[in-house]
């Protein structure tokens, strides 16, 4: 599929999304703990249409197909790596959609061929997958980027590619404490992965070197918003010199909320915080001067009064807004969901969890083409859940991880995986299929059903 065709499709989808003001006002006026469905007993085990196993518990009327388990051989002969994480639909050709999937791996060597490898001693990267939205069938998968580190999330572009983010700032001749090897190159970058053909393997350094998590692009102007997954984190935006050609550089900035040095706690719903932006003079600076802290970008913003968040993770553009999760923010330390309005230059708290049973550590998120959010949980509990937050502010559990593999049920895997985190939620452009991962043991699902009943 040509990039021009892909670009037209995705920009059209963005233009025809629900009006931003409508969704924004509904979230701000109605999202509250009072509307939450706490009782998940009505979610029953549903058999996977691929394996026949009851891998998920789902809302009534929903069904699914699994694909791309860790260890499965992909269409290019490469073994599917572990660590399924962020994901996005990046192209559509007729009924066939192409999805790019991150693999959050440290590793000791690349899983892909040399022509797709950035650093031969790095184990992360991406795979592309194809799915037929009409027949509901998985078609194929192949390696699209390798030799990167801890590809956690990222985001789809309006021009038909995926921006994959490294969640580390490790450098040459260094190793992780639990993996004894030395990298050959600097890491902490964003890479662009096309729907067809190989990635360029050139890191987009102007987007910054920090512990990246996810990003979202405003299709109206090409501005990129980025999250940072650290206990003390910043929210960033990148102003490209040339739209769609990120290799030509641009300006990186960090969010500054007037009068709010730290929004990890103390944030109030119903308040629209006024935003400013401060320039990051050296976007590839790894450390604060005189320290080895990996906070070189963040510290530049803080020196100018920028605002601190806690563990910013999922980030997605929809309905004219940029939504992002603060995984351990809020008074209970269990998660906040924020909405930034590029048009109004305001930030608002959509929701924060008051307890574990309601929402625990939201990570990746996506916006439905109908409005409303899907939230992936990543917490130290079993089983982990996948939630929806409707445009009317109703939080419900869509799915529960039910993967407990017994002897003979899978050729390579055995055990209780119900604590595996949900990741990579993304909808097909028609909104009928939700693609999502469970990171451990590593498997991708396509889920469909009566979305209108959930208001998502």
Keywords:
mainly beta, six-stranded antiparallel sheet, 4 helices, globular
Question: Which strand order spans the largest sheet, edge to edge or round the barrel?
Answer: 11-12-13-14-15-19-18-17-16
**DSSP helix fraction:** under 10%
Strand content: 35-45%
Low-confidence stretches: 1-26, 28-35
What's the rounded overall pLDDT mean? 92
Quick one: overall form? globular
Biggest sheet: strands, sense, closure?
Answer: 9 strands, antiparallel
Counting DSSP H or I runs of 4 or more residues, the number of helices is 4
The count of DSSP E runs of length 2 or more, i.e. the number of strands, is: 28
Give the termini separation.
29 Å
Radius of gyration: 20 Å
Secondary structure class reads mainly beta
What would your notes on this structure say?
- The protein has 456 residues and is mainly beta.
- The chain is built from four helices and 28 strands.
- It has helices spanning 3-15, 20-30, 296-302, 451-454, and strands spanning 44-46, 56-58, 63-67, 84-93, 96-103, 124-132, 137-148, 151-156, 161-166, 190-194, 212-217, 224-228, 235-240, 250-257, 272-279, 312-318, 321-326, 336-341, 346-352, 362-367, 373-377, 385-389, 395-401, 404-405, 415-416, 422-427, 433-438, 443-448.
- The strands form six sheets. It has a nine-stranded antiparallel sheet. Strands 1-2-23-22-21-20 form a six-stranded antiparallel sheet, with no helix packed on it. It has a four-stranded antiparallel sheet with strand order 3-28-27-26, with no helix packed on it.
- The two termini are 29 Å apart.
